[in-house]
Amino acid sequence: MNTVQEVIAVAASAVMAAVLTFLLVRLLDRLRRRDAEFEAQEIVRKAKQEVENRRREAELEIKEVLIKQQAENEKELRRIRGELHERERLLDKRQDALEEQAEQIRKQEKIVESTQRKLTERIQDTNRRKEELSKLVDLQRQTLHELSGLSREEAVNRLLEILDTQLQQETGSVILKYEKQIEETCDQKAREALLISLQRYAAAHTAETTTSTVGIPNDEMKGRIIGREGRNIRAFEKATGVDVIIDDTPGVVIVSAFDTIRREVARLALEKLIVDGRIHPSRIEEIVADTGRELERHIKRLGEEACQEADVHGLHERLVHLMGRLNFRTSYGQNVLRHSIEVAYIAGMLADEMGMDAALARRCGLLHDVGKAADHEAEGGHPKIGADLLKRYGEPPEVIHAAAGHHDDLRVENPYTMLVSAADACSASRPGARRETLERYVKRMEELESIAAKFTGVEQAYAIQAGRELRVMVSAKDTTDESAAKICRDIAKAFEERLTYPGEIKVTVLRETRHIEMAR
Description:
14 helices; Ribosomal Protein S8, Chain: A, domain 1; three-stranded antiparallel β-sheet; three-stranded mixed β-sheet; 70% helix; flat; mainly alpha; Alpha-Beta Plaits; Hypothetical protein af1432
């Protein structure tokens, strides 16, 4: 009995335990589910909040992008508007130009119509006169036939002789008239071509000299140059062929010679000896020989640079060397190499103006004085020597003839010879090129400007085009257009009375009024 009760109690306890366990599991499960739902809601809330934050950030980024894009669009729009304004301005300018051209065309059409009308009237007048002449001829024929009793054939011959004489006289007058017109036109065109060519090129000026100065560090060096009993200076003069002048002038030794190449070798050699400090006869001979070789290389380089500057290629090496030697030759103070380059430029530009071969003209101009580099080695003038050299080294006939005839020594058979002759005359005779030193040239330019500056109302004066033109700026307050014209004429008269100059001097007076305001 007790055992059964115990079993029942145990079973009841087990059932109660199972029920409690089941209820506990259900409770725990419900708690877990509620926690899970709460966590899920929290995750959803956080996700929504993050989505909202990201949405706001995206909206801000989109707004920033839109703002930047709007700014770029406005910048591009401003640029496009500027381009449109510029195009509109250009179109307006082109339209104005077209309208001006149309106006010119209308004027030309009126002129053509007037010319055609006058020509028609002249034709009608000519036809009328021709008819009158025919009637007069018939009347004269009849009168002559009646008075002279000549036959028809004899009268016709007599009349033809009279008409032939009259026509010859009229033809001669017409020919003389048109010859004069053609001569004036050619002279004007030639002047224009020369002026354009001269205005497009300007060259440096050089001064003639027969001495070179060499600086020395102290007067003690003079004694070392002279040497014991003068042996150093004698050896130097014998090796170089120059005269060395050592006087009381402090810090300077003078090298004198008419041969510019020998003088240049002596100058360079003496500078090297002074720097080296070892001055004795054997060292002098060594330095002079080395300097001579260096100068030969320098001469070749000068010739190559001159050909490159004048755009002349394909010359023989000997001709290039001779062109370099011209750098040490002067003519009335003008460097012959610079003169040759200038003649090449002017001849080439004249050929351009006349529709000729500019490259060939430059070649003729560059080589026209090449004989001066060798005129001490052969007999005859430099035109003949130059022509012989050019012929020997295979230059074209035009170049040879230009060298031989640029001083009018030959009968001109080639147009390029005339071009070179004209360019040579322009280069030699233009103001500042020859017959005066650089100091005198500068002084003459200053004199031009100072004469103009003394007139009342003149603010500034500038001499340009190597003294061929003077630009004068006058005050707009102190002068009028009429007084400016008088100032221009007075300045020109003052130049004619006070100065001596080749050619002409053009005086240009400029009067300008400017009004400037700032919009703020």
